[in-house]
Amino acid sequence: MDVSESFGEMLPWLKKYQEAVIVIKVGGHAMVDPAARSSMIKDIVTLKYLGARPVIVHGGGPEIDAMMKRMGKTPKFVSGLRVTDEETLEIVRMVLVGNVSADICSLISKHGGNGVGMVGSDGDLIVARRKAPEKAVIDGKETEVDFGWVGETVRINPKILNILMENEYIPVISPIGYDAEGNCLNLNADTAAGDIAAAINARSLVSLTDVDGVMMDPSKKETLLSQLNIAQCYDLIEKGVISKGMIPKILSSISVVKSGIQSVHIINGNIPHALLQELLTDKGIGTCITKE
Ligand SMILES: Nc1ncnc2c1ncn2[C@@H]1O[C@H](COP(=O)(O)OP(=O)(O)O)[C@@H](O)[C@H]1O
Ligand SMILES: CC(=O)N[C@@H](CCC(=O)OP(=O)(O)O)C(=O)O
């Protein structure tokens, strides 16, 4: 990034982001490297000092996988969602709340901010219901998949987020919802981030991951798609270009832009200052998804 050029174009962006709520989804794959994790959180604290109101929703897929393997369990995903039995749910809660969220809050403090870790049951934030079994093609065979303790959002209650933001805190949300019976449910972090962004009428949603954005071929950087609309997203899913963890990311982006939020940005959190480059300069560095 050419620093002097970037400073020149920052002012209009800084004005736009004053008091603007920005939901930042920090993906597990973007956090594998501790230095990248710390740098991303530093950028989020910088954004706060520049006048924006960041809300973090974090993932932790690779950390959950590693813990499951240590406990002798094999992770299983269907359509980008982790099939979650009772024991897996316990591991998910332990890793997301005990490790990832706590670590993000410490990094926020280290960089001079104030983070508050929360799950769906805190302040009635995310009311969810258990996802119904779904048909999926596995190994070429149509199979009915019971996702177990996987949830989908019923309602977001943004009151607690507004209280925290008005008091200068950065909310750090683990993607765990709870249902009417008080059960915890494992939510996909991209879906939770999208639901939260829509409910609080955020200005933007930014998803930090380990690829440069949506690509025609994820192994080739030059195939990055800088701009996508809803119709193009559906087409890429249908053609199988978008697969695995990118599916919930794109489906959630579609519902976010449909809800009226201007844009969703998918960027590579391992690029130094990716977040600031994406939000404060004219030229984006990843994929920007808009309605039309
Ligand atoms: N068309 C695509 N372009 C880019 N990445 C893709 C695409 N299709 C699938 N992917 C996969 O999606 C992954 C990002 O999603 P995910 O694994 O859920 O990351 P995170 O943990 O950061 O949310 C990439 O690492 C890549 O393997
Ligand atoms: C239902 C479901 O799949 N939940 C996810 C929650 C974490 C997550 O989404 O993490 P990433 O953003 O790093 O992928 C999981 O168990 O992996």
From TrEMBL:
Entry annotated with the keyword Protein biosynthesis: no
The record's top EC class is transferase
Q: Where's the Aspartate/glutamate/uridylate kinase domain?
A: 21-268
Q: Detail which positions bind substrate.
A: 60-61, 82, 186
Where located?
Cytoplasm
Q: Where is this site: Transition state stabilizer?
A: 25, 249
- Catalysed reactions, as listed in the record: N-acetyl-L-glutamate + ATP = N-acetyl-L-glutamyl 5-phosphate + ADP
The biological pathway it contributes to is: Amino-acid biosynthesis; L-arginine biosynthesis; N(2)-acetyl-L-ornithine from L-glutamate: step 2/4
Q: What is its main location?
A: cytoplasm
What processes does the entry annotate via GO biological process terms? L-arginine biosynthetic process via ornithine
- What are its GO cellular component terms? cytoplasm
Q: Which UniProt keywords apply?
A: Amino-acid biosynthesis, Arginine biosynthesis, ATP-binding, Cytoplasm, Kinase, Nucleotide-binding, Transferase
A Pfam cross-reference name = AA_kinase
Superkingdom of this protein's organism? Archaea
Task: Give the InterPro entries listed for this entry.
Answer: AceGlu_kinase-like_sf, AcgluKinase_fam, ArgB, Asp/Glu/Uridylate_kinase, Glu/AcGlu_kinase, NAGK-C
What EC number(s) does its UniProt record assign? Answer: 2.7.2.8
What's a single GO MF annotation on this record? Answer: ATP binding
Classification via HAMAP family: ArgB (MF_00082)
The role this protein plays is:
Catalyzes the ATP-dependent phosphorylation of N-acetyl-L-glutamate.
The record's comment on protein family reads: Belongs to the acetylglutamate kinase family. ArgB subfamily.
- Name of the protein this chain belongs to: Acetylglutamate kinase
Which gene specifies this protein's sequence?
argB
